[in-house]
Amino acid sequence: MSPSTDNPHAVYALFKLAWSHYDCAPNDLEGDKATEAAARVAHQLNIESAILYADENQGIVVPESQVESAVKEIQSRFENYAAFLQAVEQGGLTQELLREGLRRELQVEAVLDRVSVGQFEVSEEDAELFYYLHPERFAVTEKRQVRHILITVNDEFKENSEAEALKRIGEIRNRVTAKPSRFEEQAQKHSECPTAFHGGLVGTVERGKLFPELDAVLFEMQAGEISEPVRSELGFHLLLCGDIEPPRQVPLAEILPKLRQSLEERQRSQFQRQWIAEQLNRLNTPAKVVNA
């Protein structure tokens, strides 16, 4: 799909949308994706026009250094400069049209910043009130470090039949329970999982991240404990429970600065959306004719 070259802003908007949302060149958009992209571009340009027609746009000038930085940021997303130039060409752009598109985008951002600058400041008291009214948002769930050893079950191989796999995992368990410090070494030697390269380390997990059978066992274990063989759809596992991070409530003092910033950004965003809606309504409402 190619937008009309009569509207260079549409060409740039489609270029950006295609790569950021669909991960492809504009010309590769087909069918429903092309229709959806066209609608999104038209909506975006309508919003930008409403913002740029507003009185708050008066006197704003985007420095060339900002445009240059934006161009370099886009270039960095591609493997090399040649790939960047190819993508620009495939998008129906020239480098100058790209710069103009970025300048318009930065102009829109500058207007929105001007509209909302100094409008919002969340006090410590307001942030503290939000914290105590929404305790669930600051709760950290229990996490546990876990290593495992896996012997897969595959009846196509005798050594991986159900019975043989259970026998093998049982022998490994005997060795590691006799000497727990051997767990990593035994994982490297015997585990049939890529984590074997890291001594069986799965990582630090919370509930719901593992197979349900493993999850149920792990979160009943003590730190340093080695499980009985556990059957999953892959085969038999031995689990080693490492450090346990109990559930906790993030202290207000720890979260307060970021909480204030988050609340201010949320209020600013809400205000900007409301302001944009007002500008759209003003732009799309026909002027009244007053008879003399």
UniProtKB/TrEMBL annotation:
- Origin: domain of life: Bacteria
Tell me which residues make up the PpiC domain. 141-243
Keyword field contains Isomerase? yes
User: In its keyword annotation, does this UniProt entry include Membrane?
Assistant: no
Known Pfam families for this protein? Answer: Rotamase
Q: Which SUPFAM superfamilies match?
A: FKBP-like (SSF54534), Triger factor/SurA peptide-binding domain-like (SSF109998)
- Molecular function as annotated in GO: peptidyl-prolyl cis-trans isomerase activity
Which InterPro entries is this protein grouped with?
A: Nitrogen_fix_NifM, PPIase_dom_sf, PPIase_PpiC, PPIase_PpiC_CS, PrsA_foldase, Trigger_fact/SurA_dom_sf
Q: What class of enzyme is it?
A: isomerase
Task: List UniProt keywords, sorted A-Z.
Answer: Isomerase, Rotamase, Signal
PROSITE patterns in the record? PPIC_PPIASE_1 (PS01096), PPIC_PPIASE_2 (PS50198)
Catalytic activity entry: [protein]-peptidylproline (omega=180) = [protein]-peptidylproline (omega=0)
EC no. given is: 5.2.1.8
PANTHER family, A to Z: FOLDASE PROTEIN PRSA, PEPTIDYLPROLYL ISOMERASE
For this chain, the family text in UniProt reads: Belongs to the PpiC/parvulin rotamase family.
Spell out the protein name for this chain.
peptidylprolyl isomerase
Write down the species.
Answer: Marinobacterium mangrovicola
